[in-house]
Structure formats: structure tokens, C-alpha cells
Amino acid sequence: MTKAIFPGSFDPITNGHVEVIEGASHMFEKLYVVIMTNTSKKYLFNEKERLELAKKVFENNEKVEVIARPAELTVEVAHELGAGAIVRGLRNTADFNYERDIAGINKTLDPNLNTVLLFTRPEDSFISSSMIKETVFFGGDVSTLVPKPVAAALEEKLRNRNNEKK
């Protein structure tokens, strides 16, 4: 069975992520979406919330399994799950340079583990979780840029934040 992992912080999961995950699920028999920790990011959703949102988004895709491994190296997660590839999404050349460097580190840790890079559609190439959070923070509507459950969760976070200010 050909397995792959798609690691990320997914805070929050966007339409670009969904597009890459759906595409990768057609390439592999099993795709694990792995909720991980990026120590340089400030999170809006905690690990449990990110896990539950991603599970909700992919609940109807039997080839996708969403799990959390917040304190592990990506290569170790791949070994644990028997995955032969790491899938990553690209929006632009900046992503390419960043992902190339990560793939290089991972290749150093395991020369047999390959990284597969998939491009998003041009209309999704500007979407980033950071921009989504920034837009929501200032009251903008991102409902066309994220899956419906994520839009609802963002709206709830915004409502709670606004209620705390009162």
C-alpha cells in the first residue's frame, strides 16, 4: 500500500490545503494529514481544534486520515506510519524555496523518503493561513477562502474575541 503524509500546522486549514490534499489522495492509497507544530507560529486554534476541523473537512474522504503529532519530527511520523512520501503544497516561488530547504533537511534525515510538491490552482495561490487570520482579526469575510466548517469556527472565534473586548 502506497502511503504518504501531508504535514502542516493548518491554523486554519484553507481551500488551498484542501485542493492539495484532495489531489494527493488520488495519487496515494492512503494519505495522512498530520497536524503538527511550527514553533515560529502563533496559533489561533489549539491542536485539538485544528484536528477536529480537519477531520470534519475530510470526513467523507476514506483515503484521508487526519491525525495529530505535535511534538515529532516529520520524518519520524512518516516512519511510524509506513509512509514513503511527504506531500507539500506550493503557491509560489517563495513556497518553493522554503519547501526545497525542508525537503533537503528531511532527505538528510532519511535518504529514502521523498517529498512530492503539488501546486495549488492560480486562484488559490494567494491564500495563506496567516492572511486568513489577519483578515478575520479585522472583521473581514474569508468564507470563500476556507471550507465551511472553518469559516464557522473563525466566525465563532471572532465573536468570542469581540465579546471579550466588551
Main sheet properties: 5 strands, parallel
How are helices and strands ordered from N to C? EHEHEHEHEHH
Query: What is the CATH H-level superfamily?
Result: HUPs
Mean pLDDT across all amino acids: 93
What is the domain tally? 1
The name of the CATH topology is: Rossmann fold
Query: What's the CATH C level?
Result: Alpha Beta
Approximate strand percentage? 15-25%
How many helices does DSSP assign? 6
Q: Compute the gyration radius: what is it? A: 16 Å
Task: List unreliable stretches of 5+ residues.
Answer: none
Question: End-to-end distance, in Å?
Answer: 54 Å
| Amount of helix | 40-55%
CATH architecture type: 3-Layer(aba) Sandwich
Oligomer category? single chain
Helix/strand-derived category reads alpha/beta
Please tell me what the overall shape is.
globular
**Spatial order of the strands forming the largest sheet:** 3-2-1-4-5
Would you give an account of this structure?
The protein is of the alpha/beta class. A five-stranded parallel sheet has the order 3-2-1-4-5, with helices on both faces. The chain is built from six helices and five strands; from the N terminus they run βαβαβαβαβαα. It has a single domain, classed as Rossmann fold, CATH 3.40.50.
